[in-house]
Specification:
With about 120 residues, this protein is mostly helical. It is built from three helices and no strands. Helix 2 runs antiparallel to helix 3.
């Protein structure tokens, strides 16, 4: 049993941090601590990015699906229902103008959420 205890004490003494009486050792320990904190912050940022991607990808999908469904309903009503009439100009404006806006929104949000080139601070990932 004494051998095992001695072995554990030896390992513990090797793993213990150096005394911080030396200014250089103190600076290195502080630098290491700051680097570890930065890595933890980056990891948390990546986790938040993944969560946001999941959340907003679903919302964008639902928005586009609802919009395409609404346009489909308008086109069906225009073709089949005599009581629902829109002029050709209004129909073309409704379909093209707002569809371009929704697709533009989709492209902007997807490029932001799923960009691979740079992080929020402008540095390359």
């Amino acid at each position: 049993m004494d051998d095992a205890e001695n072995l554990l004490e030896n390992i513990g003494s090797k793993l213990s941090p150096p005394p911080l009486d030396d200014p250089l050792a103190r600076a290195e320990a502080t630098s290491y601590d700051l680097a570890a904190q930065r890595e933890l912050a980056e990891l948390e940022s990546f986790r938040q990015d993944i969560q946001a991607r999941k959340e907003y990808a679903g919302k964008i999908y639902r928005l586009i699906a609802v919009w395409l469904g609404a346009i489909y309903v308008v086109i069906i009503l225009q073709g089949l229902c005599a009581a629902f009439t829109l002029s050709d100009t209004v129909l073309v404006t409704l379909i093209s103008g707002t569809t371009i806006n929704v697709l533009g929104l989709f492209i902007v949000v997807v490029n932001y959420l799923f960009s691979r080139g740079a992080s929020a601070d402008g540095s390359a990932r």
